[in-house]
Amino acid sequence: MRRAASEQRVAGPPPRERRGPAAAPARRVRRKRRPRAGRRRAWLLTAPAVAVMLAVSGFPVGYGVWLSLQRYDLRFPAQRGFVGLANYAAVLSAPVFWSDLAATAVITVLAVGLELVLGLGIALILRRGLAGRRALNAALLLPYGIITVVAAFAWQYLATPSLSFLTDRAWLGERWSSFAVIIATEAWKATPLVALLLLAGLAAVPEELMETARLDGASGWQRFTGVLLPAIRPVLLVVLLYRTLDTVRVFDTVFIQTNGANGTQTVSLLAYDQLAGRLNLGLGSAVSMLLFLLAAVIAVGFVWVFRADLRELSRGPG
Amino acid sequence: MRRAGWYAGTVAVLVVAVLPVLWIVSLSLKSPATISDKRLWPVQPTLENYRSIFGSALFTRALLNSVGIGLITTVLAVALATPAAYALTRLRFRGKALVLPLTLAVAVFPPMALVGSLFDLWRALGLYDTWPGLVIPYLSFALPLAMWTLTAFFRGLPWEMEEAAQADGATPWQGFRRVLVPLARPGVLTAAILVFFFAWNDVVFAISLTSSDRSRTVPAALAFFPGDEQFAQPVGSIAAAAVVVTVPVLVATLVFQRRLVAGLTAGVVRP
Predict the structure, then answer these.
(1) Best of A8, A147, A171 to disrupt the B interface by mutation (most B CBs within 10 Å)?
(2) Claim to verify: residue B146 and residue B80 sit in the same structural domain
(3) Residues B73 and B170 in one domain
(4) Which pTM value belongs to this model?
(5) Is A52 on the interface with B (CB under 8 A)?
(6) In this structure, are B141 and B246 located in the same domain?
C-alpha cells in the first residue's frame, strides 16, 4: 500500500498531500458526469444512511432535550409538566454532580495521559522493528479486542485480595486505590489503539528528516523531541481529543468495578442512576445533556485552540 | 546496552498486555474449592464453570441475543453505509461537505445522552426489552463508524479500474459486479468487523433498555451476574462467560489483524 503510494507521489499530487496518498488518484481521475443524473444518484445512495442517522440519533437527542425540560418522574407520572430549566438548576446546584464531575476529570486526565505516554513508548518500540514485533502486535490486539466488561472483571479480580496472586490489599476498598484500578483498566484497554495510531503517524515521518538530524549530531532524545514529536503533533492531538471524548463518558469499567462506591461515581453513572435507578427521566436527561454539552465544549474548544495543527490533517474526505 | 532497553520494554509490554487475559482464563479453570487459592495457575484445571454456564439458559440465551443483535446491526449499518461512502468518495453533490462532519458529531454523543429518551419512547412503542430496541440505538453509533471507515478506505482505491471498465463498454451492472465489489470487499469486511465489535461490546444500552433474557446481551448479563442467585460461584462462572465472549472477537482480531489496524488508523492518520 505504502509503496504504491510513493509511486503515485511522483505523478504529481502536491507535497502536502503526502500523508494522504489515497486521495490522489480519486481526485485526479474524477470525470465529468451528466450533472443532474449524477446528483440524483448521489442522493439516492447517501440519503438512506443520512436519514437513518438523523432518525436514530437526532430524534432521540431532541426528545432528550425536551425531557430534560420537564418534571418527569415515572414513579409520579401524574406530576409530569414543563419546568423550563429547573432540572438543570437542580443538577448544577447538587454537590453530587460536582463531585462526580471531579471523579470523571480525575479518571479522564490520568487515564488519557497514561495512554498517550505509554502509547508513544510502544509506538517507538514497534517502529524499531525488533525481533518479536509480530508477537507484540498480536499481543497488543488482545486488550483492544476484549470487551470492556471482561477487562473490568479481569482487573477487578487482579485487585481482589481473596482471589489475586498479586496482592493482599483491597484495592477497590478505598477511593484513590479504586481510581488506580479503574485508570489501569481504561489505559490497558485503550493504549494499544493509541500506540497503533501513533505508529501510523510515525511511519509518515520521512526517514531523510531523521537521517539529516542524525548527521547533524542530534542525540536520540534530541531527534525524538526535535523531529519526531513535532512531526506527529497533529496525529497526537487527534488521538488526545478522541481519547478525551471517549473517556469523559466512561461507564462500563466503573459500573463493574465499584458501581460508583468510594467517591468514584462518574457523570455517566449519575445519569444512569437517575434514569434507570430512580426512574427520574427529567433529572436524568438533564444530567445526560450536561454530559453531552461537556463533550461538545471539549470538542469545539479543542478544535478551535489547535485549528492550525488540525487543518494539516483535515483535508478530510470529500 | 541500548538495545537491551528496547527489548526489556518489549517484554514488559507483552507481559502487561497478556497477564489480565491469562488471569481470567486461569480463574475460569478453577473449581469452587480452589478459586481463592491465590495462585496464577489453576492446580486442578476443570471445565466445570464452562459446563455450568452452557447449562444455564440465562447465558446461552444472552449469547444468542448478542450474536443476533450484533449481526443484524452489522448488516444494516454496512448496507446503508457502503453506498453512502461510495457516493461521498466518487460523486459530487450539494450537501456532501456536511455529511462526514455530521457523522463525526453523532459519534461524539455520549451513549448515555440517548438512554433517557429511548427508555421513555421504547416503553411507549413496545420496543423495550426487544432486539430492535437495541439494534436501533446501536445503529446510531455503528452507522457513523461504518461510513467513516468505508470513506477512508474507498479514497485509497484505484478507481481507474472502474473508469476503464466503463470505457471498455461494460454495463454499469458488470462494472459493479466485476470491478467494484471485489475492490470494495476488504473495506466492507473491515467496517463490518468494527461495527460488530461495537455492538458486541456495548453495556450502556444493553443494561438500560432490557429487563429480561429476551434481549439481554452477554455484557449486560455479565454486569448483573453477581446479583443472580442461580450461580453459586459467580467468579468462576463470570470468568468462564468472559472467556467465551472474548474468543470470537480475539479470533477475528488475529485473523484480520492487518486489515483491522489499517481500518482503525485510516480515519485518523490519512482522513
Answers:
(1) A147
(2) yes
(3) yes
(4) 0.88
(5) yes
(6) yes
